[in-house]
Amino acid sequence: MEKQFKDKESIEDVMQMQEPSKQNRTVKIESRNMELYYGEFHALKGINIAIKTNSVAALIGPSGCGKSTFLRSLNRMNDLIDGVKISGQVLIDGKDIYNSKALRIEELRKKVGMVFQKPNPFPKSIFENVAYGLRVNGISHKSFIEERVERSLKQAALWDEVKDKLKKSAFELSGGQQQRLCIARALAIEPSVLLMDEPASALDPISTAKIEELIYELKSDYTIVIVTHNMQQAGRVSDMTAFFYLGELVEYDSTKKIFTNPEDLRTQNYITGRFG
Amino acid sequence: MKTIFKKVISKFVEGLLMMSGTVTTLAVLFIVFYLFKESLGLFNMTPVEDSYSVLVNKNNPVKKLSAQQIKLVFDQEITNWKQLGGNDAEIELFRTEDISNYYSEDEIGKNFEHLAQRINEHIEKHRGIIAFVASEYEMKNAASVPLSVDKITLLELMKGKEWFPTAQPAAQFGVLPLLMGTLLVSLGAILLALPFGIAAAIYLAEIADTRFRNIAKPLIELLAGIPSVVFGFFGLVVIVPMVQQWFNLPVGETALAGSIVLGIMALPTIITVSEDALHNTPRSMKEASLALGANKWQTILRVVIPYSISGITTAVILGIGRAIGETMAVLMVTGNAAVIPHSILQPVRTIPATIAAELGEAPLEDYILKHCSF
Amino acid sequence: MLKGIGVISWEFLTEMPKDGMTSGGIFPAIVGTLLLVLGSMLVAFPIGIMSGICMSEYVKDGFIKRFVTVMTNNLAGIPSIVFGLFGMEFFVNELKWGDSIIAGSFTLGLLAIPIVIRITEESLKSVSKTFREASMALGATKLQTTYKVVLPIAMPNIVTGLILSLSRVSGETAPILFTVAAYFLPKLPNSIFDQVMALPYHLYVISTSGTNIEASRHMAYGTALVLIIIVLMFNLLANWLRKYLSRKVKMN
Ligand SMILES: Nc1ncnc2c1ncn2[C@@H]1O[C@H](COP(=O)(O)OP(=O)(O)OP(=O)(O)O)[C@@H](O)[C@H]1O
Ligand SMILES: [Mg+2]
After folding, report:
1. What is the pLDDT of residue B312?
2. Which residues span the domain enclosing A223?
3. What angle do CA B280, B284, B290 make, to 5 degrees?
4. Are A86 and A73 in contact (CB under 8 A)?
5. How large is the ipTM?
6. Ligand 1: which of A69, A72, A118, A248 to mutate, judged by most atoms within 8 Å of the beta carbon?
7. In contact, B88 and B80? CB cutoff 8 Å
8. Is the Cβ of C209 closer than 8 Å to some Cβ of chain B?
9. What is the value of pTM for the model shown?
10. Residue ranges around ligand 1 (CB below 6 Å)
C-alpha cells in the first residue's frame, strides 16, 4: 500500500503540474501584440488579450477571421504548419511560450489541452484513447492509469455509456460520444487550460447540450477558450467574449456586454446578423 | 534515469531515420553517376579491340579511318584507297592467317617466331595493303604503321545503321536499328493496348454493374503482377505460332509478336489506372450532367473523360513505360535481329533485349538506355 | 496455361532437374527464388521503410524533398535490366562478389527500394492530419506520434504494398540474369556467395535455349504455372492481411 502511494507521488512529479505563480494567478493566458503570418498572408494582426484563470472565453467572428489560428497558437499547434511566422508575445502563467528556453513544447501542450472541431479519436480502444496521453508522458503504472481513465471519462460525462465496453474500438461510438471521448482524452493528462475549436459543430442538439453542461462544470478547474459560431452557445457558456474580424481582435469584453451593448459597430453588426 | 534512457533511444531512432534517408539519397546519386561514368567510358574506347592493330604501309597517306570505313573495307565494299582520300591503288586485305599464302612454314618459324618480321616484310612490299593482326606481331619503327581509328562519337552512335559490337576488325556501334526496333515494338504495343484498355476501363467504371466490377478488378490487378517471363513464354507458345500462321511467315518471331505480347502486358496497367481515374469522377458532376438532360454516353464523353483525362494520361505513360523498358518478354518473342526493320513482320531487337543478350560486352547499352528512359 | 496443371506433382516441386532439364523437378529453382526474395527483402525493407518514414514525417517540403522524390521516382522508372547491368558492373565485378545470392539480392533490393519508399511514404501521407494533431496536442513528441499513432494506422497499406513489391521481385528475370542465376545447377546453395537457379530465369532458359526445347516444354508449362501461383499467393496474402490488419488497427 505504502509503496503504491509513493509511486503515485513520483508520477505526480513526472507530470510536473506547475502551479500558477502568485502575481499572475488571475491572468492565465495573455497575448501581447501578437502577429502571425502564413507565408505572406497576415492572419493575425496585433492581438492583445488577457484571459482570467478558471473562466470561459468565447471566440466569435465570421469564417476565416483567424479564430482557429489564434486558438492553435496558444499551444503552438501552428508549429506543425510550414511557413508560419509569429512575433509578439504569448504568455501562459506569465511565461512566454514562444521564447522561453526552459519550456519544452511537449510540456506546454500537456498543460494546454485541445479539443478539435471534428471528433478525432485514434483507431484504438476507448480505454487506450484516454490512456494515450498518460503513456506518451512516460506513465506506465497500471492501476494509476485505470483510475485516471475512469475519472476522466466521468468528468466528460461518458463513463456510464462506455464502462462496459472500454476494450471496444472508439470508432464504434456515436459522433457525440466520440467528441466527449476526445474531451476525456484531453482531461486525462490534467491540463490547466482547455482549448476547444467548435467542439459541438458536428453534433446534434442533445450532444451539444451535454458538452455545454460539461464546459460549465469544468470551469471550476480549468481555463477554457472556446471557438463557436453559435451565438446562443457563446452566451450560455462563456464569461468573456472576443470578437475577431479579418485577423483583428475588434472587441473583448464580458459576454453580457458584447451581446447587449457592444462598443464597436462591426461587433454590433455581426451580433445582430447585419454583418456585411 | 529511465527518462534519460528513453531520450537517448528516441534521439538514436530519429538519427537512424535521418541517416537512412541520407543513405538512400546518396545511393541513388551513386547509381546514377556510376551508370554515367561507365557509359562515358565508351567514348574513350576505340572500336578495334585492344589486343589487335590495323596496319598499313608506311608510305600510305591514309593514316586515319572511322570504324564504319574499316568495316566497309573489310567487307570489300570499298576497294580503292582513292575512296578513302588516298592514292589510286587497289586495297589489299590481309589477316594474320593469310601469311601462309605468301611464306612457307620454315620462313615463319615453327613457333611463329618470325611471324612479326614476315608480316612486316609483306606490308612493306605491298603498298595498298591493309592488315588486321594481333598487336604482338606489330613491329616498332618498321615499314608498317598502325592506322589510327576514330574514337566512337555520339553522332556516329546515333546515325550508325549497324549494331555489331563483336565485329572484327572494327566493332559497329550504330544504335539506329535498336532504337527503331524499340520504337516499332512499343508503338505497336501502345496502338494495340490503348483502345482496348480505355474501352475496358470505361466499361468497368461506368457501364458494368458493381458485382462484375468487384470480380474483374482484382483479376486484372493480378494480371498486372504476373512476371514478364511468363508473358514471354505465353507469347512464345501461343502468339508466335499464331503470327507465323496468319501471315505465312518463315518465322513467327517478329516485331508484331513483340507488340502483341507487350500490348497484353501493358493492358492491365492501363485498365486499372484509368479505371481508377474514371471512377473518381465526383458523383455530383455526373448527376449534374444527367440532370441537364444529357444521356449516358454524352455524360461519359463530355464530363467523365475530360475530368479524368490526367489520370488516363498517367495510365498511358505508365503503360508505355512498361512497354519500353520491358526486357524478357521481348527478348523471347521478337527474334533478336539487330537490323533496321522495314515491316512489323520482321524480326527486330530492342534496346533492353540487347542488354540482356550482350550484357558485359560493351558499356554502351546503359548509355543509350539512360538517354531513352529519362 | 491449363497445360501446366498436369505437370505439377509433389515430385515436380521437390526434385532436382534431370536429363538436361527435360524431366525431374524444379526444387532448386523454387528454393533459389525464395532465397532471393528473402535476401532482397533484407536489403530493401529496413532502409526503404526508414527512408519512407523520414521523407514523409521529417523532411520539410522544399528543395531537398523534391530532389529526393524526383530521384527515387526516376529510379523506380528505370527498366529493370538497367539494374541488372548496374548489379553486374558493381556488385559482381567491382566488389568481386561474383555471381552470387548476395549480388542478386542486392540488385533486386535496389530495384525494390524506390518502390518500398514510395509505398511507405504514400501510406503515411494518407493518414489524416487530425490524428497527428490530436497526438501532438496531448504532449506526444514527433517520434511518439509517428510510431504510436501514424505507423499503426498506415500499417495495413504498408504491409500490403510491401508484399506486392515482393511479388514483383519474385518474378523479375532481367536483374538476376547476370548477377546470380545459374543455367543449370541441380543442388542447393551452401553460402550466400553461391549461385542459385531461380524460377523466372529457369522458365526463360527452358523455353528458349534449353538443350531440348520440345522435350522440356511440359516442364516450362509447369514452371510458368508455379510462378503464377506464387504471384497469386502473394496477392491473396496481401489482400487478407490488409483486411485483417485494418480490423485489428481499430481495436488495440
Ligand atoms: N495552413 C494555412 N495556410 C495558409 N493560410 C491559412 C492556413 N490556415 C488558415 N489560413 C488562413 O488564415 C485565415 C484564418 O483562418 P482560421 O482557420 O483561423 O479561420 P477561422 O476563423 O477559424 O474560420 P472558421 O470559422 O471557418 O473555422 C484564413 O483566411 C485562412 O485562409
Ligand atoms: Mg476554424
Report:
1. 86
2. 11-17+24-119+193-271
3. 110
4. yes
5. 0.81
6. A69
7. yes
8. no
9. 0.77
10. A 38, 41, 43, 61, 63-69, 81
